Amino acid sequence: MDKVSEVPITNEQMEYLLLLQQEILGKLAVGNQHQETLDDLCRSAESMLPNAVASIMLFTDDKNSLTVRAAPNIPIEASKALNGLIPGEYSGSCGTAVYRNVAQFVSNTKEDTRWAASAFQDFAKIFGINACWSMPIRGDNKLAIGSFALSSMEKRNPQKFHKKLLETCADIVAIILKREAEEKQLKFLAHYDALTGLPNRTLFADRFNQAIAHSKRSNSLLAICFLDLDNFKAINDNYGHDAGDKLLIEVAKRITATIRDEDTVSRQGGDEFTLLLRDIDSPSQCEKLLERINHSLAQSHIINGRPHKVSASIGTTLYPLDNTDLDTLIRHADQAMYHAKLSGKNQQQLFNILDDQQIIQRQERLSEIQQALKNKQFELYYQPKVNMKTGQIVGVEALIRWIHPDKGLIPPLDFLPLIDGTEIEIQLGAWVINEALQQLDDWQKQGINLEMSINISSHHIQSLLFLDQLNEALDKHPDVNSQDFQLEILESSALGDIETINGIIKSCRNVLGVNVALDDFGTGYSSLTHMKNLSANIIKIDQSFVRDLLDDPDDFSIIEGIIGLSHAFNREVIAEGVETDAHGIILLLMGCELAQGYGISHPLPATELLTWLANYTPNQYWLDHAKKHLSLPQKKIILLQLTTQHWFNRVKKELLTMEDSGFGKFFIQCHLGMWLSRVEQKELFDPTWVGKLKKVHDLLFSLADKLIKHHQAGKIGLAKEGINELELAYEQVCTVLAQQRQNHTAQKSFASLITKL
Ligand code: C2E
Ligand code: MG
Ligand code: MG
Fold this sequence. Notes:
The chain is of the alpha/beta class. Helices cover 53% and strands 17% of the residues. It has an eight-stranded mixed β-barrel with strand order 13-14-16-17-18-19-20-21. A five-stranded antiparallel β-sheet has the order 2-1-5-4-3, sandwiched between helices. A five-stranded mixed β-sheet has the order 7-8-6-11-12, sandwiched between helices. Helix 20 (581-590) runs antiparallel to helix 23 (632-656), helix 23 packs antiparallel against helix 28 and helix 25 (671-682) runs antiparallel to helix 26 (687-712). The chain is elongated. The relative contact order is 0.04. The structure holds ligand C2E and magnesium ion (2 copies).
């Protein structure tokens, strides 16, 4: 046992110890460099023992040996000799103190077993150490983490005070070391993720700045990737957060092992990681690097003895192709990652710069529209609807226009698609309802009685507040008869759940008393179902069918079908896009009396509409036609005359042009041909006559076919030469058609009408 003399500690000595403690801890508090404070502590201790030097030794990181941490008055060579001291029995004062975790007071190094080894003897001799007292420094768990020692040039026995001095110093060192470790941890946490030890966002940003400079110097690309584990939540939920955490650590290790030294992986939080890949030459090179990560992650992970499978979705953007700041790059990579998820997970996706620009532009335009609504830049134009049979104006359709202060009039299809499904669409829709009702009210007060229809988007009509909104708007105009108000809903739009939408339509009609039309009818995927299951009372034939009515036998048949169905289901039917007199006549022949279109009037501002109304004269051809009472076969023949004439005129016109302008399919298949192929079943006509018509039709058709082929082959001259012959063949067809008409009561007046058209 080391002897500590029983000399009591004096008050003065106690005071000194207190002062020392205060002074050193004060330095710690004001944030002095820890090394400096440790050195000061050594010096203070030395001042208490003449001819002695103090030293602090600590375990190295591997905890195998001790190394000198502070010893301001020990020669460098002595420190070097001490470094690497392995604690054990008889390993000098310090080695033994640490090993035993008990203070060692060697009073005479020359005669002490603890210093017996030759290395210690040599050391003592070289540096003149004759006594050495060492106190273990203890960490949190009271285990020794190092030693505080006073080595004396003289042999000497310690007193109680010395023991206390060493204890105090060792305690102070422990406090300083603890603080140092905490600071280190804080520093680490400021730059690294606590769970995985990966760089955090801050360090990632730092590395990014370095990488950007490098990319500029080397003209290489820099990939910023966003990696998100697929179905990670399920692992957390099913196996607990502990398993989840372990998996994240494992994933972090695998990614780190897969990427190159110059790359960085960081954890953003949760199961999200970002990667910075430098020196990328091409997108495909980057793709390969990421494939390696996916491959490495795909190998099963053993967590708590259980195998787990994980995969990741990765989005990437490449700087400087995507030339923006780090936050935006990460957002872009995140967006691409989201696409990877949507496309089925476990894959990577490259960010498309164009997509993003479109998103930004869309956002800008949306707020522009919002602003325009506030600034009252929207206006309703009104397009009349007439009854072609009576000539009466039945109503108007309100069509929105954006009167832009710089760009002028912007048509609805240039901005409505942008707001599809948004809150602005509902706000704008509400404005349309109120504006149209106000106009209707105003007209009514001026003695103008019209029906008004407005267009309602399917998103708006299906919004929760729609019915209340409409009800309130109608309440504001008690003089307006809700029967005069009509909603047009696009048949083609995603009407969602048919039952729901039908519920709304029914409430509109039965509770509020407004009419409902299915707009652009025939363009949807299941028009027949809509006609049958939706309680709309009006069907609006889409203008695209009307436009090509004369050219395209298919469109003709579609309209015929829609009109037939409307009658069968007891719906009112109106055609839009009626541009010519011929359109009107054909629609009348097919049984559709209501029409809207440029052939009647373009949509007009409210004031111009008043002038138009004042000057309106009904279309005489339509009125004349409507007066005739025609049998079904007569109607058919007129239709055939009209369509064949139209067909012939177009073929002739095309043949006369110098270049091959591309004959559409309607030249190959004409109405007459279509009809002839079906007519036999109808048994409306005399078979001998039909045979005769078929013969002249076939002649006309094969001749046209031949000439068209010449024209297409560039033999324009040859094609033109045949026109006379073609005309003769056409006249024959006309003669045969006319024969049939005369058989069914002479309708001479029609000859002039048809020539006119
Ligand atoms: P829509 O409801 O089918 O309206 C008919 C469209 O066809 C109008 O185009 C009209 O100007 C045009 N049109 C009328 N007659 C003819 C014609 O003879 N030939 C041709 N080629 N076109 C004709 P507009 O005003 O550009 O509106 C386009 C679409 O925008 C409307 O189609 C409707 O779906 C929508 N829309 C217009 N105003 C509103 C509105 O206030 N709210 C909603 N939700 N949609 C609206
Ligand atoms: Mg409409
Ligand atoms: Mg329409």
